[in-house]
Amino acid sequence: MSLDVSLQTDPGALSDDPTEEARRQIEICNACRYCEGYCQVFPAITRQKVFASGDITQLANLCHNCRGCYYACQYTEPHEFALNLPKALAVARVDSWDRMAWPGGLARVFQRSGMALVAALVVGFAFFFWLVAALPGGGEGFYAYLGHTAMVAIFLPAFVLPLGAIAVSLRRYWREVGAGPVRWAHLVDAFAGAAKMRNLAGGGAGCNFEKDDRYSQARRHAHQAVLWGFVLCFASTSVGTILHYIFDIQAPYGLISLPKLLGVPGGILLVLGGVGLAMLKLKADPDLGAKDYWGGEMAFVLLLSFVGLSGLALYAATGTALVGGLLALHLGSVLTFFLLTPYSKMAHGFYRMAALVADAQERAR
């Protein structure tokens, strides 16, 4: 297949700027169109003739890095075009998170260094060990170690303030990509795509995160486990809050109770999904993603798994002398997770949802 020679095809001329390099590759893809059936990125590309910076940001966040297009492409190295669209979009994507994060600069620190996440986790552990010793509770179960009032005073701001930071980032994203008013149909379409992880099916065979050009649905299933594990854990906490404040039914809750029936399976799914994603990242070719951010992404996946694992261990240790230490570890990891949400890989879920909504909006025009 021959392409228009007027396209910018020199990979060395523009590669220092993530947006410009992604634009160069997307323009070649738009001329070729061999991969247009792979995922939502390629139909979105074909709807454009000229790609503004906001268009590149939208396409980068719409990409799920399934990598199918790379193995189908006839213009990868050693071809002179040197296309590597998964990498180009991954680098542009994390660059957009860096630019839009609020306060500025924090995302780059956390995304580029897994050690930053680990250090924050250790600080969280140490803080809560001190807190558990200094602030004795007055209730049953883990409230005997940390009172309900103290827990709310710590975790409510730690939950609300990161959500505020994410809201600022998403507002910046929405403006940059030029999206308009959101309708209910756009949200339904986006949530359906996210719930099914349909873009992680690639061209139908799944993602290539294993060896050579082997495709599987393993990454899709691991992502689904993490997603639904997180949803179940959040639902468990929400139900516990309702039981506490509205029905005056206080923790600890038995195994046959709604908080535990939601939280225990949720924790198991978090652990299984997180470990699965970590194993796939170890197998995957790092040159098909944002290599400089690999450590931060891996640290986030392991942190997420540890949140689920420590929660399960805490429940299993109920009534033993291990509760105090496990509680400090679990709450320290949860606090670290909350505080890092706007700046770690967790932010991708919010940006990805915004990209799916914007894409649904564009397709409806």
> What is the mean predicted local confidence, pLDDT?
86
SSE-based structural type: mainly alpha
Instruction: Give the strand content.
Output: under 5%
In the CATH scheme, the class of the largest domain would be: Mainly Alpha
Characterize the structure shown:
The chain folds into 2 domains: 11-99, no CATH class; 102-363, Fumarate Reductase Cytochrome B subunit (Up-down Bundle). With 365 residues, it is mainly alpha-helical. The longest helix is centred in the middle third of the chain and has 30 residues, at 148-177. The protein has helices at residues 11-14, 18-32, 41-46, 53-62, 68-72, 85-100, 106-112, 114-134, 148-177, 184-196, 218-245, 258-283, 294-316, 323-340, 347-363. Helix 8 (114-134) runs parallel beside helix 13, helix 9 packs parallel to helix 15 and helix 10 (184-196) packs across helix 15 (347-363). The protein contains 15 helices and no strands. 65% of the residues lie in helices and 0% in strands. 41% of the residues are buried. The protein is elongated. Keywords: Membrane, Transmembrane, Transmembrane helix. It comes from Antarctobacter heliothermus. The chain crosses the membrane at residues 116-136, 142-168, 225-247, 262-282, 294-316, 322-343.
